[in-house]
């Protein structure tokens, strides 16, 4: 696996932040505000990630509620879905702190977490993450187009390191 130097990581994060800020004028990162998902049906991304792609609300297979709280745990912490399923995640923050749910591989989550530590005010609005203020809930729709083992985590500073991570097993068709 190729190692990325810190200067390349910082440069990449800065370019990503500038790119996102130019295209998402009102997004707010980790400040207590939720990201505006806009009209999801009108803006569904076709970009494939290693862990799937944004789901179409018209093709939801089932809903899964994810609870978060200040014990730095998700409930449930393990989920199994079938390849091709489109899941509506109902993400509830039962705590008093800001939490988030970010889908990805362990490598992607660690990289994103590092970028957030270096650039805590980085603005972004991606379909594979949702920020949830205390006492609130948000929805995220994701299609698991590829089989494999993936994860979800809270990347608010210190939460991932405290163990706020869950697992998703995507069973092949």
Describe this structure in words.
Strand 2 (62-69) and strand 3 (73-75) form a beta hairpin. With 173 residues, this protein is of the alpha+beta class. The model is unreliable at 1-41 (pLDDT under 50). The chain is 18% helix and 32% strand. The radius of gyration is 15 Å and the shape is globular. The strands form 2 sheets. It has a 5-stranded mixed beta sheet, with no helix packed on it.
What attributes characterize this protein structure?
alpha+beta; globular; five-stranded mixed beta sheet; 18% helix; 173 residues; 10 strands; disordered N terminus; single chain; 32% strand
Low-confidence stretches: 1-41
Write down the overall geometry.
globular
Radius of gyration: 15 Å
From N to C, what is the helix and strand string? HEEEEEEHEEEE
Count of alpha/pi helices: 2
**Helix fraction by DSSP (H/I, runs of at least 4):** 10-25%
Q: How would you sum up this structure in a few lines?
A:
A five-stranded mixed β-sheet has the order 1-8-5-2-3, with no helix packed on it. The protein has a five-stranded mixed β-sheet with strand order 4-10-9-6-7, covered by helices on one side. It has helices spanning 6-23, 106-118, and strands at residues 53-54, 62-69, 73-75, 78-82, 86-93, 99-104, 129-132, 137-143, 148-153, 165-171. The chain contains two helices and ten strands; from the N terminus they run H-E-E-E-E-E-E-H-E-E-E-E.
């Amino acid at each position: 696996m190729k190692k990325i130097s810190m200067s390349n990581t910082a440069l990449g994060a800065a370019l990503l932040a500038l790119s996102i800020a130019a295209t998402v004028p009102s997004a707010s990162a980790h400040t207590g505000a939720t990201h505006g998902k806009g009209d999801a049906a009108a803006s569904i991304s076709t970009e494939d990630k290693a862990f799937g792609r944004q789901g179409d609300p018209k093709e939801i297979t089932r809903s899964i509620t994810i609870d978060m709280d200040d014990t730095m745990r998700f409930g449930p912490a393990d989920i199994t879905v079938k390849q091709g399923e489109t899941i509506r995640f109902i993400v509830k923050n039962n705590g008093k702190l800001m939490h988030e749910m970010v889908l990805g591989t362990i490598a992607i989550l660690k990289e994103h977490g590092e970028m957030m530590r270096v650039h805590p005010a980085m603005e972004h609005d991606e379909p594979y993450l949702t920020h949830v203020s205390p006492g609130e809930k948000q929805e995220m729709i994701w299609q698991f187009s590829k089989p494999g083992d993936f994860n979800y985590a809270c990347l608010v500073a210190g939460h991932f390191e405290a163990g706020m991570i869950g697992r998703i097993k995507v069973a092949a068709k």
